[in-house]
């Protein structure tokens, strides 16, 4: 399933399980859910501009 900005937000697997993609900003992946249960979180490091 695609969201408003044509970003992938959900996949339904052949076994019927749903994978939701948690995105923010211009499409950065923040985490994933499997059947509404959080299975992974991603955290971006602060970029040092020195």
Count of DSSP strands? 4
* N to C succession of SSEs: EEEE
- Based on CA atoms alone, the radius of gyration comes out at 13 Å
How far apart, in Å, are the first and last alpha carbons? 40 Å
* Secondary-structure class: mainly beta
- The average pLDDT value, as a whole number, equals 82
What's the main sheet like? Answer: 4 strands, antiparallel
Strand order of the largest sheet: 1-2-3-4
What general form does the structure show? flat
Percentage of residues in DSSP E strands: 35-45%
H/I helix tally? 0
Helix content percent band: under 10%
List the uncertain runs. none
How many structural domains does the protein architecture include? 1
Give the structure's gist in a few sentences:
The chain has 50 residues and is mainly β.
Task: Explain what you see.
With 50 residues, the protein is mainly β. The protein has one domain (1-50). 0% of the residues lie in helices and 44% in strands. The protein has no helices and four strands. A four-stranded antiparallel beta sheet has the order 1-2-3-4, with no helix packed on it. Strand 1 (10-12) and strand 2 form a beta hairpin. The protein is flat. The model has no long low-confidence stretch (mean pLDDT 82). This is Rhs-family protein. It comes from Taylorella equigenitalis (strain MCE9).
What characteristics describe this protein?
50 residues; mainly beta
Topology (SSEs and partners):
Layout: E1 10-12, E2 18-24, E3 28-34, E4 37-41
Antiparallel strand pairs: 1-2, 2-3, 3-4
Protein name: Rhs-family protein
Organism: Taylorella equigenitalis (strain MCE9)
């Amino acid at each position: 399933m695609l969201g408003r900005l044509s970003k992938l937000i959900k996949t339904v697997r052949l076994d019927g399980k749903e994978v939701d993609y948690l995105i923010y900003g211009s499409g950065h992946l923040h985490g994933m859910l499997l059947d509404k249960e959080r299975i992974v979180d991603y955290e971006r490091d602060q970029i040092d501009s020195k």
